[in-house]
Design a protein that fits this description.
Distance between the termini of chain B: 13 Å
Radius of gyration of chain A: 28 Å
Largest sheet of chain B: 6 strands, parallel
Number of helices of chain B: 12
Order of helices and strands of chain B: HHHEHEHEEEHHHEHEHEHH
CATH topology of the largest domain in chain B: Rossmann fold
Helix content of chain A: over 70%
Shape of chain B: elongated
Oligomer: heterodimer
Order of helices and strands of chain A: HHHHHHHH
Number of strands of chain A: 0
């Protein structure tokens, strides 16, 4: 038998999950409004608590243990606190200082690695052998990569007039890009379907009590939304703020 | 004929959604047992984890938010269980997303059991590995790539001495002589954001440490590019990758049953696309002719 704690989590989870999916119905639902606001509020609340906890768990003890040796950490904390100055118009300019430093430091730290992982290694991965391969399939794959790269390059020639073979290559490059974007979109769709699957799995298995509770909760949500639409439109308007 | 095309072109999208919901639920309850091919990248990842030796140090990072957890739960369970089966392998859990420690604890509780004399976290035993001796949970670190960069340059200070629960775990590092980022033998990151990318930039490029990523579906295309470029040592993509890993590791998880629904609903969607397009072009053509 499910205990009160786990039962509560199951019901709340079902309400928020199926509440968010109610947007697909195209009708206003108080359950969607509740889930949306609860999700945003909870996520922000959790972020604040966890970040503050990190400060008290790690940063403050480090500073207190040896303030002189940890002066960079003290400056970092001061810069971090300065970001809060964004809340007032008179002090908003001061908040730009830590944001500028954080952005500059971030770019400086990342750019060195990105040159290798994002540029050099990617170029290396497209320069593939076409001879001496183990199987004919390897040849097909490598040839596809090499030709695709060359064709897509021609799509980005902006300073030359497109005519003759270059125009044909440009067109093929465009179709290869379409194909790539199609694959990306399909991956996005698969990702969303994966989310649905994962959530449904949690709510319908085991069939008792999870499946039974989920069915009851979803029926209550649908019926209550229908009733609000048909009988109490004023209340529905209050419960679904924009 | 015109009416059939018109009907096909104007099916209410809510009918699609309802059909997908029902089909998914039905296939989860009654899986078909469709065959599953193992992709080379998942097989390679499995072999990489399987080749871990006693004394090896693994960082398991969670860069995962609640929204992506449902997709990666299968990979988390089976891969962590596999790592913990390897004798003498040491594990440091970290998190680079603020919601991640909640899910990390869920995975630990699912794969382990409370150690004798303890009643709560962090004292769980997983496949015989004891908390504090064989593994530690360092919890959440803000800063994403900036923290990973500092971890690479200054390992111990960046991690600190206290675990997620405030316990002093310096003994774990000292007893195993863990002092430098170079001591890490493998990084596994479960990502709905690009945690593995950060480890790849500052561990793989810096020290050659292999980095494995298990990622949500929308990140698979990008991860595949990194894998093909040799930046990632392995990838376990979304539910599909989790199912393949569970099959290889003989782990009794949900991902395998989810794959049936995944495959059938994909085909169903292709069918709907074909129906909609045939209806649209058929109907508009008939209208033009009329």
């Amino acid at each position: 038998m499910v205990d009160l704690y786990n039962g509560g989590i199951l019901i709340l989870g079902t309400v928020t999950t199926f509440g968010l999916y109610m947007i697909l119905s195209g009708v206003d639902s108080p359950w969607f409004a509740f889930a949306e606001h609860a999700f945003v509020g909870t996520a922000i609340g959790l972020s604040v608590v966890v970040a503050t906890d990190y400060l008290f768990r790690t940063i403050i003890p480090r500073i207190l243990s040896d303030p002189a040796a940890n002066w960079p950490t003290i400056i970092s904390v001061i810069l971090g606190l300065m970001m809060i100055l964004r809340v007032h118009r008179d002090t908003v300019h001061l908040a730009r200082i830590p944001i500028t430093i954080a952005t500059a430091a971030g770019i400086a730290v990342s750019v060195r690695a990105e040159i290798f992982s994002g540029i050099i290694n990617q170029i290396k991965a497209t320069i593939l052998p076409l001879m001496g391969l183990a199987t004919w399939w390897d040849f097909v794959v490598n040839l596809t990569v090499v030709l695709s790269v060359l064709f897509v390059f021609t799509f980005y020639f902006y300073t030359t007039e497109m005519k003759g073979p270059l125009q044909q290559a440009n067109r093929i490059g465009r179709y290869i890009l379409y194909l790539s974007f199609g694959v990306l979109f399909a991956q996005t769709y698969m990702g969303r379907l994966g989310l649905l699957l994962g959530h449904l799995q949690s709510y319908i298995q085991p069939y008792y009590p999870n499946g039974a509770v989920t069915v009851v909760v979803v029926v209550v949500m649908i019926v209550s939304t229908w009733l609000l639409h048909k009988r109490y439109p004023e209340l529905l308007e209050k419960l679904t703020p924009e | 004929m015109s009416n059939i095309f018109k009907m096909m072109a104007h099916i209410d999208r809510r009918v699609y959604y309802a059909a997908v919901f029902l089909l998914t639920a039905l296939l989860l309850i009654y899986p078909l047992g469709l065959p599953l091919a193992i992709s080379p990248e998942v097989r390679h990842t499995y072999e990489l984890v399987d080749s871990l030796e006693p004394g090896d140090l693994v960082i398991i990072n969670f860069c995962l938010s609640a929204s992506g957890y449902a997709q990666l739960q299968g990979a988390c369970n089976s891969m962590i269980d596999h790592v913990f089966q390897k004798e003498g392998v040491l594990v440091i859990f970290t998190a680079t997303a603020d919601q991640a420690p909640i899910m990390l604890e869920g995975i630990i509780a699912n794969n382990g059991e409370l150690m004798a004399g303890h009643s709560d976290f962090p004292y769980y035993e997983i496949n015989g590995k004891q908390y504090g001796t064989d593994y530690i949970n360092m919890g959440y670190y803000p800063g994403l790539f900036k923290w990973v960069a500092s971890l690479s340059a200054d390992f111990r200070p960046a991690l600190g001495n206290n675990d997620w629960y405030g316990n002093d775990v310096s003994e774990f590092f000292d007893s195993h002589d863990i002092t430098h980022a170079r001591d890490v033998d493998l990084v596994i990151s479960f990502d709905s954001d690009d945690g593995a990318g950060d480890f790849m930039n500052y561990f793989f490029l810096e020290y050659g440490t292999p980095v494995v990523q298990s990622q949500i579906g929308v990140m698979v295309a990008g991860a595949k590019v990194q894998y093909n470029a040799g930046n990632y040592a392995g990838i376990v993509p979304s539910i599909r990758g989790a199912a393949e890993y569970q099959f290889l590791a003989d782990y009794p998880g949900y991902a395998l049953t989810q794959m049936d629904a995944f495959s059938v609903v994909q085909f169903f969607l292709i069918l709907l696309m074909v129906l909609g397009n045939v209806g649209y072009y058929g109907y508009t053509r008939l209208q033009k002719e009329a």
